[in-house]
Amino acid sequence: MYGGYGYYGLGYSLFDPTMILVYIGALLSLWASSKVNSTFQRYSRVRSMTGMTGAEAAKRLLQSQGIYDVTVQPVRGQLTDHYDPRTKTVNLSESVYGSTSIAAVGVAAHECGHAIQDHAGYAPLRLRSAFVPIANLGSKISLPLIILGFFIGLTPFIEIGIWMFVLAVLFQIITLPVEFNASSRAVHLVDSLGILQGDEVDGTRRVLGAAALTYVAAAAASILQLMRLIILFGGRRRND
């Protein structure tokens, strides 16, 4: 058994003290999500002086960088915006694609920032793209391996599961510089190209800053979960 936790070491007990790490991670994620939603809603009510839509701004930005092989297209959902390097598409949500708000322009510019990274061969983006299948595998099988190893008493399964979770955490960490760099490129370009002006640039900076917090919170929550797994299961070999 793990330090007296027994069956409850898997997190089924409200009295498991390591659950505080999970609660902290969840609170951080909720706070970041609330922050980005409130900030986006605030600036989505402010129309840009140029009257450009998110889609128009995205096309302008891409053309300014000599990128003509990337398509800008709408996707369903709220804040589902993303750049897909496999299909060379900047996908903008319904609240961004046709909106003239400075929030929409900022989000569109951020996704174009990723397209620009891809075009320039930005190393952290390539590393993140290469890490995607590994991180997906790690996030899917890590906990099942740990739970299986716990119940059948196979320490190697637990250790492999923890290492697989480490890979998923590394992906979250690698994502941070990619997202911050894309936002930095976006703010600089909308300002230098005159797509946004004056206080509008500051508003976009606030929107993208709030969005970045969601990635920071996700990374922090993953690290806290990893700490919990190590506390609960890391001493298995010593206890056996």
Q: What characteristics describe this protein?
A:
elongated, 69% helix, 240 residues, 8 helices, disordered N terminus, 3-stranded mixed β-sheet, mainly alpha
Overall residue-averaged pLDDT value: 89
Shape: elongated
Write down the Rg.
21 Å
Task: Kindly estimate the percentage of residues that lie in beta strands according to DSSP.
Answer: 5-15%
Distance between the amino and carboxyl termini: 8 Å
Strand line-up across the major sheet: 1-3-2
Q: Provide the domain count.
A: 1
Helix-and-strand structural type: mainly alpha
Describe this structure in words.
- The protein has one domain (about 5-50, about 100-240).
- The protein contains eight helices and three strands; from the N terminus they run ααβββαααααα.
- It has helices at about 20-45, 55-65, 95, 100-120, 125-150, 155-190, 200-235, 235-240, and strands spanning about 70-75, 80-85, 90-95.
- A three-stranded mixed β-sheet has the order 1-3-2.
- The longest helix has about 40 residues, at about 155-190.
- Keywords: Membrane, Transmembrane, Transmembrane helix.
- Pfam families: Zn_peptidase_2.
- This is Zinc metallopeptidase.
- It comes from Ventrimonas faecis.
